[in-house]
Design goal:
Elements lengths: L13 H14 L6 H6 L5 H15 L1 H12 L10 H6 L4 H32 L33 H8 L15 H4 L5 H16 L2 H20 L12 H26 L3
Helix pairs in contact: 1-3, 4-6, 4-10, 6-10, 6-11, 7-9, 10-11
Length: about 270
């Protein structure tokens, strides 16, 4: 399975490393999302993105709005994971906490990422700043953590790769697929990953995840109406930036739904 190129956090240096650090701090998360790790592989992509959206992140307005939308969207749940089933799969109390932290981190990151992509897509479409961004002092919440490491794509076992094929986002014809980062944090727990995928597949097939995605995307679009007029940016330096926004505009809301379902299933 060909995967989307990305610049790992450990490989970032200079301005890219500085932007990564700001994204972690202001996003209240211990990691940088795949959309931004991919943009960092495009000439000027990460720098252009942060120059355009950074002021809205620094105000906290974008994050607070995105978190509220994601938390209030009604969803059809998956079955709760019985403690006995998790124990049988080798998932002890420490592992349950590890999984909860992953879910919490991505449930903070993905709503912010989606509203970011929604706003930036409009900027690419020609939207111009018409009002000043309200200045305010904002401090992000404490990030969850520590976060268990993702399995590198090259280190995924054939069994885990086959599982991820069932949920990976489709790419363009003969192009790379998006293996969402959340799943890769469970690459070392194939039994739990198999349980999660098995519980999610009926929700993919009955259309309930798609309905949640549509509701979230519509709400984020309405929220962008108030943010985009405060944004301005020069022309994008690479056409791949727009293509990335288009691709992730569908991948990210799906993972908002998946993250919520996971966090609720493992809550007890």
């Amino acid at each position: 399975m060909a995967l989307l190129p990305e610049l790992a956090e450990s490989a970032a240096s200079g301005e890219k490393a500085r932007i990564y650090a700001e994204m972690r701090r202001l996003g209240a998360v211990p990691m940088v999302a795949l959309i931004f790790r991919h943009l960092a592989t495009l000439p000027g992509g990460l720098e252009w993105t942060w120059g355009a959206i950074g002021p809205a992140w620094k105000s906290g307005r974008l994050q607070e709005t995105a978190w509220k939308i994601a938390g209030e969207t009604p969803l059809d749940p998956i079955a709760a994971f019985p403690r006995e089933a998790l124990t049988a799969l080798g998932v002890d109390d420490a592992a349950i906490e590890e999984i909860r932290i992953v879910a919490r981190a991505y449930n903070l990151a993905n709503p912010v990422n989606l509203l970011t992509v929604t706003c930036l897509s409009r900027v690419l479409g020609g939207a111009k700043a018409s009002v000043a961004l309200d200045a305010c002092a904002w401090s992000p919440p404490v990030a969850p953590g520590p976060l268990v490491a993702m399995t590198a794509p090259a280190d995924l076992s054939p069994e885990v790769s086959a599982l991820l094929e069932l949920v990976a986002a489709p790419g363009s014809a003969n192009g790379p697929r998006v293996v969402q980062s959340l799943y890769r944090h469970f690459g070392h727990r194939p039994q739990f990953l198999a349980l999660l995928v098995t519980c999610l597949l009926p929700r993919f097939r009955d259309g309930s995840i798609d309905r949640g995605v549509a509701t979230i995307r519509a709400a984020m679009s309405r929220a962008a109406d108030a943010i985009v007029p405060t944004m301005d940016a020069p022309p994008a330096p690479d056409p791949g930036i727009g293509a990335a926004f288009e691709r992730f505009g569908f991948v990210i809301p799906q993972m908002i739904v998946v993250g919520r379902l996971l966090e609720e299933a493992i809550r007890n």
